[in-house]
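sry for the spam today, last one i promise. struct tokens for design, 122 residues
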């Protein structure tokens, strides 16, 4: 009688881990593409701060906004702030991404601040 109960416990445990694995795959399937696009936007913004910081703050904001549109990220133009100081450039932006799961929508708020020194070419 004891062997029969142990055999059933193994099946229950298998199905439990199968459900956990399927849930992890679903989360990864929904979250990873957003994270990759966000990383591309941050990389682009850092590149702007390092190599195109001679442009006006308004032009840089427009470039960030256009890149976000290209990546299909829901970044609004008014959520982008570029400030140029004598020796630094600071870029801030934030947006929310709804991630749909069966029966639930997770609203992911993403905030970034890039702060870099300005280098004058001699």
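last one done:
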């Amino acid at each position: 009688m004891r062997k029969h109960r142990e055999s059933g416990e193994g099946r229950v445990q298998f199905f439990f881990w199968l459900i956990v694995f399927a849930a992890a795959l679903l989360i990864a399937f929904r979250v990873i593409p957003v994270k990759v696009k966000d990383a591309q936007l941050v990389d682009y913004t850092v590149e702007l701060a390092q190599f195109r910081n001679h442009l006006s703050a308004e032009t840089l904001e427009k470039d960030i906004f256009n890149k976000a549109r290209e990546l299909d990220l829901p970044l609004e133009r008014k959520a982008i702030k570029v400030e140029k100081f004598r020796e630094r450039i600071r870029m801030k932006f934030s947006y929310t991404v709804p991630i749909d799961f069966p029966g639930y929508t997770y609203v992911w708020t993403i905030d970034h601040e890039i702060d870099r020194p300005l280098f004058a070419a001699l």
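The chain has a mean pLDDT of 89. ok im logging off now
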